[in-house]
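Retro notes (design track)

What went well: tokenization of the new backbones is finally stable.
What didn't: we kept losing track of which sequence belonged to which structure.
Fix going forward: every design gets posted as structure first, then sequence, in one message. First example under the new rule, 514 residues:
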């Protein structure tokens, strides 16, 4: 028997898994390519290294695995469930669904091959999961929350350092200079890679499960606190040396220093946990460095691999893959529309003045088209924002006001659904928010006008998006936001906005296709 045949005979399960994994990557290359593109973002720049680390972690466990695959049928169940999700993802062409489904599909197939031994390679699969970019809407909402938390805590630290500072949301006013905590400084650039390091350290840490989990989960508050400390340090340097201390090399250098301090903090946490657990080990002895361990060879006459679950799982994957080939390259329907350049600036006595984003917001929102204007009539003002996206398949969904309004220094004091009656036969609900900054108060109506639907918030919007992507092969749509200042009462402001919605709504189908 040749060396190749002998190797193939001994490791045929590994070859089958590698073949299936490679085939899935090639067939679903659009979803995989989207991962690669998003790995170009700063917060995911660590992902390629983590992916290779996951493969290595699985590889070094090979000597600890034997030929048994006890309880392999559980893996078949995971494969069937993942295959259904994969079909839904392909029909909708929403790549995030496809990406997660592929990982779980391979995890289920690995389970049929290894049985309960799958626990020995679960962590490598978790590493792959954590480097799949989050859905864009969730990513944006997390970024907004982290920006605001970092700004608030950073300002507290600045004041503890004895400096005078004024804060408006994510804008920190030092007097001579103003610092803006932008999305790149939200802390997620620390949190994502630090969580990955925490997962790896928890995996190697020789301690009870609760201690290992604690080590992993504390990466989140550590990254937030240290990012806030970084903001405070930048403010201190800017106040002393000028705005150049917050730009270029110094900006990145400060970031790397703080990240290294985050890792040192995790190691200090290990020492503290060791002390609490009564362990006197050094840091070096606290971790299992994952040297490959050779298991004792099992008696071949007593070990029998159950091939039936593997075959059934393989057939299920094959059928799923062949089924998706018929829809794999469905061309998305992009309806024709009139651009917002022609949106009317006079509506029944309301006169509008259009303006543009000033701080590169559209680079973040990634809109195909948008309309931003202030309308005035009889000393009343209504701000209008329409953001149109022709395709949401790659995850670029309309940006929720709940994520961005606090960043401008406004506090959301009330949120509820509000019914708009257009006429005797048509009505719909919008999200109604009251926001405040000092003595100023504003009323906001917003909703998602998408493919003829009026959806009040993000969650029904996502379900409708999935349904329409499958049935209509369309994912276009827009977010609509109207704002007015509250002068006398909220009731009066409600009346103003409700009237403006009724006057504006007939314009929408021309610019936002039904």
């Amino acid at each position: 028997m040749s060396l190749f045949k002998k190797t193939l005979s001994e490791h045929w399960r590994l070859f089958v898994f590698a073949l299936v994994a490679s085939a899935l990557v090639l067939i679903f290359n659009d979803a995989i390519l989207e991962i690669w593109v998003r790995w170009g973002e700063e917060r995911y720049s660590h992902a390629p290294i983590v992916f290779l680390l996951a493969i290595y972690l699985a590889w070094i466990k090979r000597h600890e695995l034997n030929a048994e695959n006890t309880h392999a049928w559980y893996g078949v169940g995971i494969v069937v469930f993942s295959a259904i999700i994969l079909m839904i993802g392909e029909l909708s062409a929403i790549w995030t669904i496809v990406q997660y489904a592929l990982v779980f599909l391979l995890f289920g197939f690995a389970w049929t091959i290894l049985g309960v031994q799958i626990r020995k390679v679960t962590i490598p699969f978790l590493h792959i999961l954590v480097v799949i970019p989050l859905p864009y809407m969730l990513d944006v909402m997390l970024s907004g929350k982290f920006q605001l938390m970092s700004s608030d805590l950073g300002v507290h630290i600045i004041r503890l350092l004895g400096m005078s500072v004024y804060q408006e949301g994510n804008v920190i006013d030092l007097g001579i200079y103003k610092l803006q905590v932008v999305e790149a400084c939200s802390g997620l650039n620390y949190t994502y890679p630090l969580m990955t390091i925490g997962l790896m350290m928890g995996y190697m840490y020789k301690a009870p499960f609760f201690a290992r989990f604690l080590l992993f989960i504390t990466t989140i508050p550590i990254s937030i606190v240290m990012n806030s400390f970084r903001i405070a340090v930048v403010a201190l340097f800017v106040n002393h040396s000028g705005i150049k201390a917050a730009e270029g090399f110094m900006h990145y250098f400060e970031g790397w220093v703080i990240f290294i301090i985050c890792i040192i903090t995790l190691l200090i946490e290990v020492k503290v946990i060791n002390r609490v657990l009564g362990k006197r080990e050094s840091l070096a002895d606290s971790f299992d460095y994952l040297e490959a361990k050779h298991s004792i060879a099992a008696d071949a006459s007593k070990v029998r691999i159950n091939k039936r679950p593997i075959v059934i799982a393989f057939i299920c994957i094959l059928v799923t893959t062949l089924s998706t080939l018929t829809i794999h390259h469905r061309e998305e329907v992009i309806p024709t529309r009139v651009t917002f350049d022609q949106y009317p600036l006079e509506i029944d006595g309301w006169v509008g003045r259009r303006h543009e984003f000033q701080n590169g917001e559209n680079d973040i929102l990634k809109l195909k088209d948008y309309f931003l204007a202030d309308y005035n009539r009889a000393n009343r003002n209504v701000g209008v924002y329409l953001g149109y996206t022709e395709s949401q398949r790659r995850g670029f969904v309309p940006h929720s006001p709940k994520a961005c309004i606090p960043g401008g220094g406004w506090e959301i004091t009330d949120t509820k659904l509000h019914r708009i009656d257009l006429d005797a036969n048509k009505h719909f609900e919008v999200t109604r928010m009251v926001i405040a900054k000092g003595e100023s108060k504003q009323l906001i109506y917003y909703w998602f006008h998408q493919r003829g639907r009026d959806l009040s918030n993000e969650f029904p919007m996502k379900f409708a998006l999935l349904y329409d992507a499958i049935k209509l092969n369309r994912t276009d749509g827009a977010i609509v936001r109207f704002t007015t200042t509250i002068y006398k009462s909220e009731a009066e402001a409600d009346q103003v906005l409700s009237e403006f919605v009724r006057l504006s709504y007939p314009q929408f189908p021309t610019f936002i296709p039904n």
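Added context from the reviewer: The first helix runs from residue 3 to 10.
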